[in-house]
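sry for the spam today, last one i promise. C-alpha cells for design, 507 residues
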C-alpha cells in the first residue's frame, strides 16, 4: 500500500502520554471547559446561538462534549430540562435534515440512548431516507455526509459501500476535502478533511490511501506554533484557529498514525493556549472573547476523543433523582445556596425558613422533582413533600418519612423491636410505636419540632459507628458530646444525603 506519510517506528513515551484519559478522570483543561459550558446552558436545556435562542446543532455539539468528558448529557441540566430533554423536543424538526438526524444519532449513541426512539423519532430511519443511491451521498455537503457515515457506524448499522466510495471520490488532489458542495468553488479545508478522515476510519478505512492523503493535508495545515489553519495557503502568514486545531487532532487520533506524535502534541499545546481563564476557548489568539460553539467542538479533542464518541458505562440509565442532584443555576425569586449548588423556592422555601432552616434541615441537595407522583426536594437532613390542600397553614408541605425508609428491614432487630416503658421522669413512652424517648433526645425533640417535624420514635437509643443515636419516622437524632450544648448536644443526622447515596448505588 502506497503511503504519502513516512511511518516512524517509535516506542515513544509521548505517544503513550497521548492516550485518552480514563473515563471519569478528565484532564484539567477538559474540566475547566465543561464547567464553563454548564454556565451557558439555557433554562430549556439547550445551548444558544448568537440570536440568544437555543439551537439544536450547538446543543448537539455540547452533548458530545460532555459525553467525551465522561459526563452523561442526560444529567446536565440548569435546574430544569437536561440537554437530552431539549434535543428530544426538537428532534422532530431537526432530524428532517441529514446532518440533524446524523448528529442526533451520534448524541443518542454517546448518551446510551436508543437512536430508534429518540423523542419518539426513529433517527436511523430518518437518516437512511436521505441516502441518494445515484450519488452515494446522504447530503451534497461532504461535512454533512461525513456525519451521516459516522452516525451509522456509531449505531452499528451497515454503511453503504457507495457512501464510502462517494466520500473517497470527493477527495481533492491535495488530499483534503471541501465543506462547499459546489464543484467550481471547492477548496479543501481542515474541518471537512478532519471529519472525512474520522468518517472513513469509522467505516473501516483506517490505513487506506485516502486517509493517509487526508492526514498529509492536515500536516500541511499545521503552523509553527502547533495550531492548524482552516485552509492551506489561504493566509500569509498562516494563523491557526481553535476549531481547525481541534478537528485536526481528532482526525489524527482516529487515524492512529504514529508519524503524528509531535503534531498531535503540538496541536494539544496550541489548543490549550487558546483556553481563557474562564475555561472557555477563544476562536483565534487575537480574539479574546469566550466562544461557545468553539468550546463545545474543542472539548472532545482536549479529551483526546475522536468521533464517534462511545458511551460511558452507565450512560442512558439516569433517574429523576440523579438529574435533580446536578448543580443548578440560580432561579429568579428563589434562594440559591452556592454551598450545594441548588435552589429553594416557593412553599418549600417558606416552610424551610419558618420551621427550622439550616440548623434543622441542612442545605438543599437537589432541585425540586417528581418522585412517586409527588413534588419533593431533598435536604441534607430531610425530604420536603408537597401535598396540595393538606396543610395550608404549613404551606402544604409535609416531611418525608426518611427515618422509616432508611431503616426498612430492621424492625426485628433489638433497637427497633417493641420496648417496654421506661419508668423515669425524663422519659416519654409512645404506644403508637412502642418506643421510649428519654434524656437529651426527649428535650431536643420537644423543643425543636416534636411530632410535626420528627415524627414518632421508631427505635430505642442505639450505638452506631461509636455514637448514640435514635431513629424517628422522619429523622435520626445523634448525640455529639460537647458539640452543641445549647441544643442538648444533639444534632440531626444527614439521612437525606444517605438516602440519595443509597438510591444512586441501587440504580
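last one done:
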Amino acid at each position: 500500500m502506497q503511503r504519502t506519510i513516512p511511518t516512524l517506528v517509535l516506542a515513544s513515551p509521548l505517544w503513550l502520554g497521548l492516550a485518552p484519559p480514563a473515563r471519569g478522570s478528565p484532564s484539567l483543561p477538559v474540566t475547566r471547559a465543561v464547567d464553563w459550558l454548564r454556565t451557558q446552558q439555557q433554562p430549556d436545556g439547550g445551548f444558544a446561538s448568537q440570536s440568544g435562542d437555543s439551537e439544536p446543532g450547538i446543543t448537539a455539539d455540547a452533548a458530545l462534549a460532555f459525553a467525551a468528558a465522561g459526563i452523561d448529557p442526560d444529567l446536565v441540566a440548569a435546574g430544569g430540562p437536561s440537554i437530552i430533554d431539549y434535543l428530544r423536543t426538537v428532534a422532530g424538526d431537526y432530524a428532517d435534515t441529514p446532518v440533524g438526524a446524523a448528529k442526533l444519532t451520534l448524541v443518542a449513541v454517546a448518551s446510551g440512548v436508543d437512536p430508534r426512539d429518540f423523542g419518539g423519532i426513529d433517527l436511523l430511519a430518518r437518516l437512511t431516507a436521505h441516502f441518494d443511491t445515484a450519488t452515494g451521498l446522504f447530503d451534497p455537503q461532504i461535512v454533512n455526509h461525513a456525519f451521516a457515515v459516522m452516525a451509522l457506524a456509531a449505531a452499528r448499522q451497515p454503511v453503504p459501500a457507495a457512501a464510502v466510495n462517494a466520500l473517497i471520490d470527493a477527495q481533492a488532489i491535495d488530499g483534503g476535502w471541501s465543506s462547499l458542495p459546489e464543484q467550481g468553488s471547492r477548496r479543501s479545508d481542515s474541518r471537512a478533511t478532519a471529519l472525512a478522515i474520522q468518517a472513513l476510519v469509522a467505516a473501516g478505512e483506517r490505513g487506506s490511501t485516502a486517509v493517509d492523503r487526508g492526514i498529509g493535508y492536515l500536516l500541511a495545515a499545521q503552523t509553527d506554533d502547533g495550531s492548524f489553519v482552516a485552509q492551506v495557503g489561504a493566509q500569509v502568514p498562516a494563523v491557526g484557529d481553535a476549531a481547525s486545531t481541534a478537528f485536526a487532532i481528532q482526525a489524527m487520533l482516529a487515524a492512529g498514525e504514529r508519524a503524528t506524535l509531535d503534531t498531535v502534541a503540538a496541536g494539544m499545546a496550541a489548543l490549550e493556549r487558546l483556553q481563557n481563564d474562564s475555561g472557555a476557548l477563544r476562536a483565534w489568539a487575537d480574539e479574546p472573547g469566550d466562544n461557545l460553539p468553539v468550546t463545545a467542538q474543542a472539548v472532545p479533542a482536549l479529551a483526546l476523543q475522536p468521533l464517534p464518541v462511545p458511551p460511558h458505562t452507565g450512560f442512558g440509565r439516569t433517574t429523576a433523582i440523579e438529574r435533580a442532584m446536578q448543580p443548578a443555576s440560580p432561579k429568579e425569586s428563589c434562594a440559591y445556596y452556592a454551598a450545594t449548588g441548588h435552589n429553594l423556592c416557593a412553599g418549600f422555601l417558606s416552610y424551610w425558613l419558618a420551621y427550622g432552616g439550616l440548623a434543622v434541615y441542612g442545605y438543599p441537595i437537589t432541585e425540586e422533582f417528581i418522585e412517586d407522583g409527588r413534588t419533593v426536594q431533598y435536604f441534607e437532613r430531610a425530604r420536603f413533600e408537597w401535598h396540595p390542600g393538606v396543610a395550608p397553614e404549613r404551606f402544604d408541605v409535609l416531611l418525608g418519612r426518611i427515618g422509616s425508609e432508611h431503616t426498612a428491614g430492621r424492625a426485628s432487630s433489638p433497637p427497633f423491636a417493641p420496648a417496654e416503658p421506661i419508668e423515669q421522669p425524663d422519659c416519654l413512652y409512645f404506644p403508637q410505636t412502642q418506643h421510649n424517648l428519654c434524656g437529651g433526645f426527649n428535650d431536643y425533640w420537644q423543643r425543636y419540632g416534636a411530632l410535626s417535624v420528627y415524627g414518632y420514635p421508631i427505635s430505642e437509643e442505639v450505638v452506631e459507628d461509636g455514637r448514640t443515636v435514635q431513629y424517628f419516622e422522619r429523622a435520626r437524632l445523634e448525640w455529639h458530646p460537647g458539640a452543641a450544648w445549647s441544643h442538648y448536644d444533639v444534632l440531626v443526622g444527614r439521612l437525606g444525603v444517605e438516602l440519595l447515596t443509597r438510591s444512586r448505588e441501587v440504580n
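The two ends are 50 Å apart (CA to CA). ok im logging off now
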